[in-house]
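Quick one, tokens below. Sequence please?
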């Protein structure tokens, strides 16, 4: 099997795989006499349906029996009070500077002790949907949190007969124990008013304390799976990937990476008017084998925003659970969802795998293109990056504009870019690991790399249709790229109405300022967290060259 589920007696002890202090604290309560094992989705559904506060809608789960539910299952809604999003400030990662694991381990011991008088549920799932990469994950969570438990089992791969057999035959991932996650959403501590998410990804374990929002459980679990993949030769991807089959039978695989609201899911699921046969790997979580270029999805379902899907939207046919939405009665007296973020922002739902009829769990064809989606008003709708170092460092400085709703401290430039390396705020290992992985894909696998701007270009909105047209031109080999200005390693595909004026001093000034933002970010990694995320000299040099050429 892929990850280590049990130990021979001579494998147990200090310094051996799976026996760090934090992991030993987290794993032990899974075997307590107050633990109930949740064996399948039917059991999880019944627990969630009967959990206090659950809203059982009259919206049926479409073909629920195809993935382990009864035919009469309904979409369940649960709301988390005022907590409707993730909290980055609550994250603590073992190995990062200034993380006091001694203090956190003691708090964790007490958190687990305080659950001894109640029932705890133990669930298991698989992460990774191909025999090449599958890991097993365990969740322990108190009674009363059945909706989180159910959504977690839906989000990842529940242990169906098909996947149990696949897992038995899957590749062994050496020196990697199963993932263990302890959660207590009702935990409180005066020193952690926002809660605590405590990760030891070297030992494949985490504690999620005071976290009601399901997204913390989804991304917390993926955080560990991505770290395992990173250690074993994969590029860990928070993005979308699809494969095009062109009229001549050739294949083209494109991977898109972007921050929330950038258009990542829109590009991933675009149908292109039937011009091609398209298969979708996933729109959120996958990995790329840096040796073969093939890719594997980590999850079967989709955790999607509900804001863009009115009640009558055909897409809502595929809902499984919903979080932080309202409900009302329709003209037939049936309880239905109110989906368009009226109650709060960031309403969410889990959609079944059936939402994307052209869905696959593995794309064997090597990836052809990496696309960094950015909302940088100085970048045209598309540019092509030459050189592995520049291609990767632009991913390391993947950027977007600040929101106009933000309150900024005095002296903060409102036009400065906000950077999230590789669009993945869930990385728990040094940034250089991702930098080298993506650099390898470009240098050794000859993957093309682009920046696509889905925001506005110098005050002019880039329409969705233009972005999709750009992607189609790239896929079909019809995008005529040429050198952009004085840049030696950046090429541009001119699009009418969005051609930059390289003689406009104001434009050049802004472009240089935004490139300087990226350079300063790279430089800042030399000292940030004691140099934990320091990038190599070639990364500095690649972005410095761009600035110097302006």
């Amino acid at each position: 099997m892929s990850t280590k589920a049990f130990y021979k007696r001579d494998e147990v002890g200090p310094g051996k795989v799976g026996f760090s202090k934090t992991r030993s604290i987290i794993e032990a309560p899974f075997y307590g006499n107050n633990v109930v094992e949740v064996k399948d989705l039917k059991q999880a559904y019944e627990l969630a349906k009967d959990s206090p506060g659950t809203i059982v809608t009259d919206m049926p789960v479409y073909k629920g029996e195809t993935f382990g539910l009864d035919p009469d299952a309904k979409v369940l809604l649960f709301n988390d009070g005022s907590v409707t999003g993730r909290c980055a400030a609550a994250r603590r990662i073992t190995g990062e500077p200034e993380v006091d694991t001694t203090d956190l381990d003691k708090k964790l011991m007490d958190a687990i002790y305080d659950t001894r008088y109640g029932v705890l549920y133990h669930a298991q799932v698989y992460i990774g949907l191909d025999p090449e990469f599958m890991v097993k994950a365990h969740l322990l969570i108190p009674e009363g949190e059945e909706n989180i438990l159910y959504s977690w089992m839906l989000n990842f791969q529940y242990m169906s007969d098909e996947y149990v057999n696949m897992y038995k035959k899957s590749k062994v991932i050496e020196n990697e124990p199963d993932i263990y996650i302890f959660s207590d959403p009702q935990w409180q501590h005066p020193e952690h008013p926002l809660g605590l998410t405590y990760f030891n990804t070297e030992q494949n374990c985490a504690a999620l304390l005071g976290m009601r929002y399901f997204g913390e459980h989804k991304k917390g679990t993926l955080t560990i799976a991505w770290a395992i993949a990173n250690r074993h030769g994969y590029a860990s991807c928070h993005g979308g990937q699809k494969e095009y089959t062109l009229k001549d039978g050739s294949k083209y695989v494109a991977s898109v990476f972007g921050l929330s609201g950038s258009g990542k899911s829109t590009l991933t699921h675009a149908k292109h008017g039937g011009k091609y046969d398209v298969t979708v790997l996933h729109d959120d979580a996958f990995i790329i084998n840096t040796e073969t270029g093939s890719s594997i999805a980590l999850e079967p379902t989709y955790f999607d925003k509900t804001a863009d899907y009115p009640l009558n939207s055909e897409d809502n046919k595929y809902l499984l659970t919903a979080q932080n939405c309202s409900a009302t009665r329709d003209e037939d007296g049936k309880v239905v969802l109110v989906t368009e973020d009226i109650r709060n922002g960031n309403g969410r739902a889990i959609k079944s795998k059936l939402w994307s009829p052209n869905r696959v769990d593995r794309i064997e064809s090597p990836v052809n293109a990496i696309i960094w989606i950015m909302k940088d008003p100085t970048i045209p709708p598309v540019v092509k990056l030459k050189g592995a170092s520049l291609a990767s460092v632009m991913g390391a400085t993947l950027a977007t504009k600040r929101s106009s709703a933000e309150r900024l401290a005095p002296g903060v430039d409102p036009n400065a870019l906000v950077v999230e390396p590789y669009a993945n705020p869930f990385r728990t290992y040094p940034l250089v690991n991702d930098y080298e992985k993506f650099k390898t894909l470009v240098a050794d696998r000859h993957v093309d790399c682009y920046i696509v701007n889905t925001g506005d270009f110098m005050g002019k909105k880039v329409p969705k249709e233009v972005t999709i047209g750009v992607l189609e031109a790239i896929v079909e080999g019809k995008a005529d790229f040429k050198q952009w200005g004085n840049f030696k390693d950046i090429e541009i595909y001119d699009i009418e109405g969005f051609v930059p004026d390289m003689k406009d001093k104001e434009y050049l000034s802004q472009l240089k300022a935004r490139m300087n933002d990226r350079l300063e970010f790279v430089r800042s990694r030399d000292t940030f967290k004691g140099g934990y995320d320091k990038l190599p000299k070639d990364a500095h040099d690649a972005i410095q060259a761009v600035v110097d050429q302006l």
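The longest helix spans residues 505-524. Residues 237-300+361-548 form a domain with the Phosphoenolpyruvate Carboxykinase; domain 3 fold (CATH 3.90.228.20).
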